[in-house]
Each structure stands twice: as structure tokens, then as C-alpha cells.
Specification:
mainly alpha; about 5% strand; 9 strands; Fumarase C, Chain A, domain 2; three-stranded antiparallel sheet; elongated; 2 domains
Amino acid sequence: MTILLTGNDLTLAEFERAILQNEPVALADEARERIEAARAVIDRIAASEQTAYGVNTGFGELARVRIPHADIRRLQLNLVRSHACGVGAPLTETETRAMLLLRANALAKGRSGARVIVVETLCAMLERSVLPVIPSQGSVGASGDLAPLAHLALVAIGEGEAVYRGERLPGAEAMRRAGIAPLELEAKEGLALLNGTQGMLALLSLALIEAEILADTADVATALSLDALRGTPSAFDERIALARPHPGALRTARNVERLNRGSQIRESHRAGDRDPRVQDAYSLRCTPQVHGAVRDAIADIRRVVEIEMNSATDNPLVFSEQGDVVSGGNFHGQPLAMAADQLAVAIATLAGISERRIDRMTNPHSSMLPAFLTEHPGLNSGFMMAQVTAAALVSETKVLAAPHSVDSIPTSGDQEDYVSMGMSAARRLRPMFDNLRHILAIELLAACQGIDLLAPLHTGTEAERARQKIRSVVPKYVDDRPHAPDIAAVAALIAASEFANVLR
């Protein structure tokens, strides 16, 4: 089913279908009318003596410079070329597809003054997979993501570089092979393509989808770890969560209780099987509170993302109802930068508590299991170094969680004197997710090994489904062998939503 872009009602679910499942997108008819009305305002100003920023003036500190009518088109072309100064590794093809979709939807709102053909060109590039090569560094997230979007716009006008059918080509050749006519920019259209938050928004939207998968995976890992450690189920009693009714905590408590329902290991604990412990360590007992806080943060970030997906974020904005062109600051990335920082803290939180559960399972002083989860400790080192790897990844993740949104550096001759650093805030999430995925893989492996060591007792019915997924790719650890392939195999299952889908 084609997703129709109106600029007002794109959802994260539709975003996911368009970007990750390649559902087609097109401009809605209702959006065309608004776009054409806004364009008429720009055309009137361009033909008059009225001054409007970005239409017949320079940019940034050069806004005081009036541009002659004969140079208005050249002004837009020069803007795109001069701002394409990104450096660093290119964004992934998925991230680039997301930028194309989100910029098209922002222009579809009809507040930017670009023509219909501009939006249709972006949609065609997305549909036919003409993917601009966009360097990932160079944005301070103030007047939007100027440098990344300039590299996107370069290909739309038949310049720059693009990947088409797996081949890196000059932008003009990629557009020719795809049968898309390059744009010839009119007044304000270069600015309309560049001035927006769609770089950081693309990365944050994709990160949000990943975060929801990993939050569910972390609950599954907890359920298995709880049984491996013969933990008490009492901390997951729904009455406790309802006494402090944060939605995320209630959801995690219900998830773990459901996963471990029917566990023989749980029943052996209830029977008081010579277990001197009164209550478990925080990394088990407080999982609803910790994972729940992460879930609530993700819910807040989702709200920010879905607002931003349907916002006009360039400058100036066109209000065709009154015939006005008004300068403002909707391009500023602060809401997204702060959301990305919040997500980074959430990722680091899941990573930290997961490593603590790994330590409790591998540590002979706390596990009530064979040392380092091997039946022959000493001869075998078992999971000793797997916990060390998790510790290394957690330490790195904590450093990456340092906030970006409180940083600022003046740009553009001090005209842009407070910036958001939103692109770098979002860009650092990908390596954090890679770390968390591997940490959770180690926890799942350790928990599965711990449960195997408690045989013939078995875990809960739904938790057992997760355990079987692990055992389908990784055999029980008997004699020492390299852990790296096992971790990679389980991390791949996590990335494919295999454990999240146990809950879903």
C-alpha cells in the first residue's frame, strides 16, 4: 500500500514500513494544493521589490546582502554547492533513505515555498533508490543539518555522488540511469532543501525503532537470568508496580512474570530450597524500575520524533493563508538533541544493568552455579572473559552517553551563536546500540548456560522459547571454545527481533 505524504500525519510505523520494508510513498493530492499556494507567495515576492530572507538575500551573516533579481536562481545553486562540505564516513543507505523520506514529508507540509516537482523528485529518488553519498560529519544542528542535506540536494540537482544499484556514481549519471530529471532550482528552493533537521531526525527515528527492540530483548534476557540465578519472582508482583504506577515498570514486571510462568526453577525457589537469600540484588530485584525508566524515556522520545516528522523546520516559513513569509528558528535541533541524549542515557542504563547480571551469573561468589558457568573450572575458564568483554563494552558505552545537547560553538560570524549538536548526538547512538546488542547477547548466552546447568529443572514456557532460539545457533558450552562466534550469532538474532518477538 502506498504511503501518502501530507506533511501532517506520518507515523513511526509508516516510516518503518517505507524505510525498512520498502513500501512506496507518494505526495498526497491535498498536499499539492498547499504547496502550490505557498509557492505562489514566493513567486510574488521574487518578482517584487519586497525583501525576504533566503529568497533575495544572502544567508546567515550575509542576510543583509540584497541579491539582484537576475541572480535569484544562481543564489540557490550557489547555496547548495557551498554548503556541501561534509566529511567522514557516509551515512548508511538506510539512513539516507530516511533523510529522503523525511525531507519530502516536511516539504509536503506546504510551509517551505518549494514547488511540487521538488517533493516529487525526492520521492522518485527514494522509490528508485538513487541514494546520495552523504558524509556523516559537518552539522552542528543549528540551521538544521545544512551540510548533510546539501549533499542530498546536490544529487537532486544532478551533481555530487550517489549509490545506484550498488554502484557509486556521479549524481548526474545516477539520476540519468534511474530516469529522473535533475531539478533546476527556483527561488528559495535550495534553502528549502537544506534548512531542516532531517539528518538528525533520520538517525534518531531509526535509533528509536532499535531501542524498542532492545528494551524488549533486555526483558527476555532478564527473565532467563532470573531463573539461572534462581531469583525470587516476588519483585515482579504486579501489585508492587501498581503501587508506584510508572507505565514502563508495570510493563517490564508483567513481561518477566509472563515469560517465567510455569518455571520449575521458580517453583523450587518458592519451596525454599535451602536458599539463605531473603531478597535478590538490585540488578534482578529492581529490573522493573530500571528497565521501566528506560521504557518511559523511549515513550517520551517517540512523542518528540513523531512531532518532528510532521513539522516545518526550515526558514523562513510561508503562511499562504495570510500571504506572509516569516523568519524564525524551527530549524534548531535542540528538541532532537536532548531526545538523543536521553536515549543515550537509556542505552547506557540497559547496558550497565545487563553487565551486572552477567557478573552475578559468572561470579562463583554470587551465582550458586559452577564458577564461570563451566562444569570443570580451572581446566576450563568458561565465561570468565565473556564478562570482561561485557565490562569493556559497558565502559565505552558510558563514555558515549555524555551529553551533546549542552555543548555549543558559535558559527556563521556569530549569527548562529547557540547550536544544538543534534546530529552528533544522534550519530553516536549507532555504536552504542552495537555495544548493547553484544552485551545482551553475552547475557543471553550466560543465562542459557546457567539454566542448562540447573537441568533437569526448566524455565518458564515462553522463556524456554527464547532459550531454544539460542540453542538453535549455539550449542551448550562444555569445553573451552572461542566465544566470539557465539556472541555474533546471538547478536544477529537480537538484530532480527527474534527475542523481542517472543514478547510481541
